[in-house]
Write a structure and sequence with these properties.
5-stranded antiparallel sheet, 28% helix, 26% strand, globular
Amino acid sequence: MKSTKSVLWAGIALAISVSVLAQVRTVATRGVGVAPITRDVDSARRVALMMAQRDAVERAVGAEVRVEAIPSDELTRVVTTTSGKLKYKVTNEDVQPKLVIVEIEAEVEVPADLEAKYPRLLQEETTGYQALVQKTPAGEINWRDGYLTARGVGKLKGGDEKARLEARRAAQLDAYAQALRMISGMNLDGDETVEARLKKAPTAEYTLRGLVQGAEITAERTPEPGSYEVTIKVQLRGLKGLQRAFTEGQRKSDGPPARAAEPEITGLVVDLRGLGAIPSVFPEIVDPDGKVLYNADMVDPAALMERGAAAWVTGAPESTEGKGAWAPGVLRVAALGVYPVLLPRAPWASPWTSLVAQAAPTRVVLRQGPRPTTVSATTASGPNRTRIVVSAAAAGKVRSAQSGALRQGRVVIITDSMIGGTEGRALPVIRLGAAR
C-alpha cells in the first residue's frame, strides 16, 4: 500500500512539475540599454543595465506573441516581473563622455498565458504595390515595409579569429553610425526632420541609439582583402522600431469625435505622384484650410506601433509570386481616378488592371483592405514637402474613414520612385562606443 501511495504521490509531484514548467517558455535573446551620465558613471551604468534587461524581455515576449496587442499596463507588468528574475551576462559596455551603453545576452522566461491570450499574427499584410525605396551610399530605406538597412566596414588586420572579431565589431559600430546618419536626415512629419526633433527632445536620442544598436545583423562578408563588412536592419515601426523613440511616453489623443463609420470603407489610398513629395515617418493630411484630417495622433497606439502611420509605395503593382492568397476584391486605385477599381480577375482583364485571388497556404491581406476610399492630393506642402493637402471634396471622404480605417492606420500613399539619398540632411557621423 505504501508503495502504491508513494508512486501516486510521485506521479502527482511530476504532473505538478510538468505543469509548472509548461507555464513558461525560455527564449534566448539580447538586450541593449542606453543611459545619460547625469550624476556619475556608476549610476548611469545601473540605469543602462536596467534598460538592457527590459529590452531583452520585450524582445523575447515579442518573439512569442503580438506585443502590439498587449495593453501597455499589462506589458509593463510582465516586463517588470520578468526582468526581476532574468538570467543574463553583460557582453559589452561602452562609456562615453555623456552616456553609457550596455549590451547583454539573456535567457528570458516568457509566461505561457501570454501566448494563449495574445497569439501571433497568422497573416501577412501587404499593399499590392511595389515598395518606395530610398537609396543612400550606405544602405536604403524601405518606406513600405518599414525598415532601413545600413552597411559598415571595419579594417581586418590579420587572419586569426581575434582580428576577425575586432574587425567585425568595428564594422558594427560603423553600421550603427551610418544608420544614425540616415535616420537623422529622414522626415519625421510635415515640419521636422528627425535631426531637428532630437535637438528639442534629447532624451529621444538615447532610445533611438538603443534601438539602432539592438538592430539585427543581416549579412557579414569580406568584400576585399583587409576589410570586413556588416549589414544591419533597423525597423522603423513595431516595438523595436525607431518611431518608438518619438511616441514613447506621449499621451495619444482619443482621435476624432465619434461618428458613424461607413462599413464599406476599409482604408485610404492617396496618390501623390508628380507633386515632389518626400516620405515621412508620420505623414499628415490636411484640408485646403489647413485643418488636420489625419496624423499619427489619430491612430490607435497599438495599430501605430504595429503598422506605422502609413505605407509609402510606388504606382507599380507588386508581384504576387510566392505571396499566397490575395483577399478577394483587391483594389488598384489612384486618387486622381485614372485607374479603375480592381475586381477579381476576368478573362479580358490585363495584369495592369487587376490582381488575382489565388488559393495558397499563406493568407496575405491588404493593408488598405478590399474597399479603400481614394482621394486627390493637390499639393505636398510644408518645409519637408510631406504635408498632404487634399481638396474640399476629398476631405469629406477622409473624414468618413476617420473613426474606422484611419484609426487603425490603414493608409497607403503612392508617390514617385526616389533616386539618391536623404536630401543632404544628416547628422555628423556618430560612432556608438567611441567618444563624441
